[in-house]
Amino acid sequence: MIEMIDLKQYGYIETETPPDGLLPGRVTEHRGAQYTVVTGRGEAAAGLKGAFYHRADAREDFPCVGDFVLLQYNELGDSQIAALLPRRSKFSRADFSGHAAGYAKTILEQVVAANFDYVFIQSSLNWDFKVSRITRYLTQARQSGGQPVVILTKADLVEDYSAALVEVKNAAPDVPVHAVSAHTGYGVDELGEYLQPGKTVVFLGMSGVGKSSLLNALMNEEVMVVKAIREDDSRGRHTTTHRQLFMLPSGAMVIDTPGMRELGLFGADEGISVGYNDVEDLFLQCRFTNCRHNTEPGCAVHAALDDGSLPRERWERYLAQKRENKFVDDKSGYLQGKRAWNKDLARWSKQQKKSGGIRK
Asked: Which among 65, 77, 76 is positioned nearest to 25, based on CA atoms?
């Protein structure tokens, strides 16, 4: 007997009736080329229709965990994902195709998760705590369309975390910050305000920050294996090896992602502007509209740096993120233009051959 599922519990909102023969569903797991999709008829194993692979230049159009899709449902075997429904939010990063940033031949958008309400940015309070890393995650989270929330994990491993809490709040005064311990349960109940039925949260953070431990605590059972951290550098080994959506007892959902050691900013101008609006507001106060904020007289940025109203560390973080984002945008734009030119050339050559304008 087929178990009927109400997709509204998974956050699905029907905006228009699906075409005949297609069933709406939500991607709950992604392993290589194989997807798990929950539908009104239950879970289905699915692959992609060939049309997805013909758009090799648009990796952001490939389904990811959290996506709502239309499925060619097959009761007797694997189903096929026929279409991707519009996303209300997505978390992207720059994919350097396995190369270091300075040597990458291609830079594409890699969508990590989609259709979430909150982004839980997790950072442990042990030796690996870095506010600069948190602010980079915050920039991309703001760009995503989800509401960022900073979760400082492993509160039981430090005697006093008040200074770290203040440092994060000063760096991001508009973002909620919570200190928790999945081991003791401290602070976990405070997260209940975000974990309401039908809401989706995406977990992000470096490997070893305790994402799996927190998920286990929220699930009230061990759904993820937890590995010990290395004592020499306080970092953990990768526990999550694929992306997956979990339904919590509260009715909220969590998307767990593999730990990311390097988060590349991708198309993050808006996210940077939102996170550093106080910095960019200073630009309007400079004497010259084309002020480069170097040695120009009447520079409001340097005045703010001198009187301490703009912390130098915050200014340097802003510049670092703008440089990284510009590099990605410039190289992505060049590569996209080159691919478009090659397509136009191939199309023109094909037309010429048909008309007899080009002879072999």
From this structure: 65
- pTM reported for the whole predicted model: 0.71
Q: Residue 353 CA to chain centroid, in angstroms? A: 45
Beta strand 90-95 with 68-72 is: unpaired
pLDDT by residue, tens only, the chain of 360 residues: 456 789 999 999 988 888 888 999 999 999 888 999 999 999 999 999 887 776 644 556 789 999 999 999 998 889 999 999 999 998 876 665 544 444 444 556 778 889 999 999 999 998 778 888 888 888 888 888 899 999 999 999 998 999 999 999 988 888 999 999 999 999 999 999 999 999 999 988 887 888 889 999 999 876 665 555 544 444 444 454 567 899 999 999 999 876 444 455 555 666 677 677 788 888 888 988 888 888 888 999 989 988 999 888 888 878 877 877 665 555 545 445 555 555 555 665 666 566 665 544
Phi, psi of 243 (to 5 degrees): -95, 140
Q: Which two tokens stand for residue 117?
A: 């309400």
Inter-residue contact 197 to 253 (CB < 8 Å): no
Supply 50's token pair.
């060939």
Distance, CA of 199 to CA of 70 (rounded, Å): 21
Could you give the CA distance from residue 102 to residue 327 in angstroms, rounded to a whole number?
9
3-state secondary structure the chain: CCCCCCHHHHCCCCCCCCCCCCEEEEEEEEECCEEEEEECCEEEEEEECHHHHHCCCCHHHCCCCCCEEEEECCCCCCEEEEEECCCCCEEEEEECCCCCHHHCCCCEEEEEEECCCEEEEEEECCCCCCHHHHHHHHHHHHHHCCEEEEEEECHHHCCCCHHHHHHHHHHCCCCCEEECCCCCCCCHHHHHHCCCCCCEEEEECCCCCCHHHHHHHHHCCCCCCCCCECCCCCCECCCCCCEEEEECCCCCEEEECCCCCCCCCCCCHHHHHHHCHHHHHHHCCCCCCCCCCCCCCCCHHHHHHHHCCCCHHHHHHHHHHHHHHHHHHHHHHHHHHHHHHHHHHHHHHHHHHHHCCCCC
